[in-house]
Amino acid sequence: MKERIIGFDLARAYAIFGMFIVNFNFSFGNVYPTENVMGRFLNLFTGNSTSIFIILAGMGVSLMTNKTGISTEEKAKYKSIILKRSWFLFIIGLLLFNWWSGDILHFYGGYMHIAAFILFLPKRYYLWIISVIIVVYHILLWLIPVGTSWDFLTYKYTDFWTPIGFLRNTLYNGWNSIFPWFAFFVIGMWLGKLDWNNKVIRRNIFIIGLFLFTIIQLIRLWAKNPFIDDFTHRYILSEYFPPYLPFLIITAGFALMVITICMFLGDQFKDAKIIHYLAKTGQMTLSHYVIHITLGMLILEKLTGKTYTGFLEDEMPTAPQYILLYATLFFIVSVFFSWLWSKKFKNGPLETIMRKISV
Q: Whole-model pTM?
C-alpha cells in the first residue's frame, strides 16, 4: 500500500506541474497552435494534465473505500465524508471563478458529489456509466451548439451567473463540464478498485493505455489527408474544447501510461529523496492548485508587466520558453514548500481544512 501511494502521488505531482504550464500559458502565453517548437510542446500538456488530475481524484475516492466486508454504517460514513468534501471544493471553486475563469474545483466538487452515489457499485458498472456519459455528451452536442454563450476571442462565458447559463456550463459546455469529463473520474474509480500490487495488472493497464494512445494517433495522422471532409477533420483533431471522443480516448490512454510509469518509479526508487519530495508535492495538489492560480499569477503579472485578467491573454504573448521556465521554477519552489510543510504537518493547508470539515 505504501509503495502504491507513492506511485499515485508521483502522478499527482506530474499532473499539477502540467497544470502550472497550461494555466500560466493560458493567462500570459499563447494557447493556440504555433509553428514555434516550444509553443507546440507546451500545448501538449493541454488536456493531458487535466485528465490525469481527474482520474487520480476518482482513484483516490475508490481507494479510500475499497475494503472488504465494509458495513452499511461505514458506507454511510464514507458517503457523508465525500459529499462534504464535494461541497467544500464546489464553494472554493465558485469563490475563485471570478479570479480564474478556468477553475476546475467547482467541477471537481460536482464529480465527487455524483461519485458518492455510485461509490459502492461493482466496478463492471463503471464501464457502462463511462459509455453513457460519453453518449449523452454527444447527444447534447447535436441538440445544443457547443459554443453557446462563449466569446471565443476572450473565452468568457457570458451568462455563467444565470441559472440556465450555470446549469449549461456545469453539465455540458464548461471547461471541464460533467458531460463528458466525469467519465475520467469514473475511469479513476474503476482503476481504484483494481489490485495495484499485482504487476500483471499494472502491465496490462499500461498496454491498454499505449494501444488507445497509438490507435488515435494513427487515426489523427490519417485525418490530415486533404480528401477528409471538414467535419471529420475537426472531430478527430479537436483538442480540449470541445472534447470529442478521439480526444477523450487519447488523453485517457496517455493518463493510463503515465500512472503506471509513476507506479513503476515509485516501486524502483521509493527510497530516493527526490521521489519522497515529489510524493509530498503530490499529496498537496489542492493547495498547490489554489496557490498557483493566485500567488503564481500575481508574481507572473509583475514579471511580465502585463495585466492579469483570468481570461485568455489579449496582449503580446509571453514567449513559451519563459512560460516553461517560470512554471518549472514555480514547481521547484512548490516541491521545496511541500517538503518543509510536511516536516510539521501531515496534510497540506487546504487539505487539512477539507479533512476537518468533512469528518
A: 0.91
